[in-house]
């Protein structure tokens, strides 16, 4: 639903938000949690290159007009309480923050005159984990990714039948989800050496997986699945996710129960939460999986889902090595990817998760799965790009890679853009591979 907060010509009194193609124009209003100086963790909103300090806004009377329950939730140390409200309350908050940051109106004039107290430069703040993640689930929503991975891992070119009827997923690990910039340790694990004989050692096939992170807002009661056309009322927003993967560990352990230690050592997410409301102009029809696919079962099918269930987000993945950074060489672009190459929609992901009666809670993180496109060069992980390690590629420094090595840094960016609307950026997700924290 588009409203005044999506107006393309709206400008902010925060001048850095009005620069063309900035990540955080006034139409974005992403949430974060940050610390600065001696201040405790608090919730902020991104605007241009600044953060709007919501606690300072409250003290300055700039949140007057919002209900007490909203103001209370916005002045906590995590976003969970705010995520646990409902979509009408998230919209009310967005409209208020928009009016506060717009370059016209009474509220905006008061905010501008308090700018010294309510704004803090992003460069001088440390962004931290924005919510307590109760549960992390990781899907495998790209059919292109699933087909290529299966071919490489098991040699079979016949897709698994269940993938035609449901988006596959597994329950991941919330304790090791970290925000951008936090260390990523090369995982240790059992790796098959001789035929069916493993050794315990650091992964030699360490990989990234570019994914969209879906963050649950309002939860559901256990035993009560969320209907498809109600699913988006339970989505608070999105972030970028890198699902780091030890492919050699994964290959040895994966059958019959699926991913475990190849994945549970660390997952990185970007610290800015882009709301579903901010992305309203970028809705799109569900991407057709192909005429030879069966119709989804009724509970995963609706006209609304087909008409506007998808979201247009573009991603880029960059790689830099120790040597490249030392030599001042710019990061190498490894791939460009589009969320629309994934045909299972946001609503189908949420509905499928609860279809057993499973309950979701505010702040739960759900990964879309690797956002790989139809062409092999559109793969969003190295396992596909290198065909399991058979192919190599050369970095600008002349170094050769099939997988990540110690010191390599993976940077992911994402944005929604479309003619006639300001670009809505996701910020950046960075992770650098460090040696194992302990010896094998
Ligand atoms: Ca994954």
Tell me the number of strands: 26
Q: Ions, cofactors, ligands: which are bound?
A: calcium ion
Radius of gyration: 22 Å
Terminal CA distance:
53 Å
Question: Can you give a write-up of this model?
Answer:
The chain is α+β, with helices and mostly antiparallel strands and 440 residues long. The protein folds into two domains: 4-128, SH3 type barrels (Roll), CATH 2.30.30.230; 136-434, Fumarylacetoacetate hydrolase, domain 2 (Alpha-Beta Complex). Helices cover 20% and strands 28% of the residues. The protein contains twelve helices and 26 strands. It has helices spanning 54-59, 68-74, 80-83, 87-101, 106-113, 115-118, 143-154, 247-253, 303-308, 322-326, 346-354, 382-385, and strands spanning 31-35, 42-47, 50-53, 119-121, 126-128, 136-140, 168-171, 177-179, 184-185, 188-194, 197-202, 206-207, 210-216, 235-242, 245-246, 267-269, 274-275, 283-284, 310-311, 314-320, 332-338, 365-367, 393-394, 400-401, 409-418, 421-434. The strands form seven sheets. Strands 6, 7, 8, 13, 14, 16, 17 and 22 form an eight-stranded mixed beta sheet that branches. Strands 4-3-2-1-5 form a five-stranded antiparallel beta sheet. A hairpin with a 5-residue loop joins strand 23 and strand 24 (400-401). The longest helix has 15 residues, at 87-101. It is globular and about 70 Å long. 46% of the residues are buried. The chain binds calcium ion. The site of calcium ion has 7 residues, from loops. Calcium ion binds next to loops.
């Amino acid at each position: 639903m588009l409203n005044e907060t999506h107006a393309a010509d709206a400008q902010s009194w925060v001048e850095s938000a009005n620069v063309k193609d900035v990540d955080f124009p006034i139409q974005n209003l992403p949430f974060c949690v940050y610390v600065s100086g001696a201040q405790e963790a608090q919730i902020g909103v991104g605007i241009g290159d600044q953060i709007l300090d919501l606690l300072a806004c409250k003290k300055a009377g700039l949140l007057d007009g919002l209900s007490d329950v909203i103001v209370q939730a916005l002045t906590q140390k995590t976003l969970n309480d705010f995520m646990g409200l409902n979509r009408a309350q998230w919209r009310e908050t967005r409209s208020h923050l928009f009016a506060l940051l717009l370059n016209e109106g009474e509220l905006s004039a008061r905010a501008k005159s308090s700018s010294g107290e309510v704004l803090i430069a992003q460069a001088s703040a440390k962004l931290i984990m924005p919510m307590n993640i109760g549960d992390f689930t990781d899907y495998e929503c790209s059919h292109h990714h699933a087909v290529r991975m299966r071919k490489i891992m098991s040699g079979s070119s016949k897709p698994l039948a269940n993938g035609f009827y449901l988006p596959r997923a597994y329950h991941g690990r919330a304790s090791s989800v970290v925000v951008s910039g936090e260390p990523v340790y090369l995982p240790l694990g059992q790796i098959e050496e001789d035929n069916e004989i493993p050794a315990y050692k650091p992964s030699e096939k360490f990989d990234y997986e570019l994914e969209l992170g879906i963050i649950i807002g309002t939860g559901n009661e256990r035993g009560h699945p969320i209907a498809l056309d109600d699913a988006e009322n339970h989505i608070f927003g999105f972030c970028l996710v890198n699902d780091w993967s030890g492919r050699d560990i994964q290959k040895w352990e994966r059958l019959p129960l699926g991913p475990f230690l190849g994945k549970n050592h660390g997952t990185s997410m970007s610290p800015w939460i882009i709301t579903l409301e901010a992305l309203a102009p970028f809705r799109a029809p569900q991407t057709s999986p192909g005429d030879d696919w069966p119709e989804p079962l009724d509970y995963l099918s609706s006209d609304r889902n087909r008409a506007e269930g998808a979201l247009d987000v573009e991603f880029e993945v960059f790689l830099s090595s120790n040597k490249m950074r030392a030599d001042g060489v710019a990061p190498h672009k490894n791939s460009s990817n589009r969320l629309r190459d994934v045909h299972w929609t946001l609503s189908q992901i949420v509905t499928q998760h609860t279809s057993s009666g499973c309950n979701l809670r505010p702040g739960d993180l759900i990964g879309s799965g690797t956002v790989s496109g139809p062409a092999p060069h559109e793969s969003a992980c190295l396992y596909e790009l290198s065909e399991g390690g058979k192919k190599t590629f050369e970095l600008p420094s002349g170094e050769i890679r099939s997988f990540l090595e110690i010191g390599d840094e993976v940077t992911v960016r994402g944005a929604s853009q479309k003619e006639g609307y300001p670009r809505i950026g996701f910020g950046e997700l960075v992770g650098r591979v460090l040696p194992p924290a302990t010896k094998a």
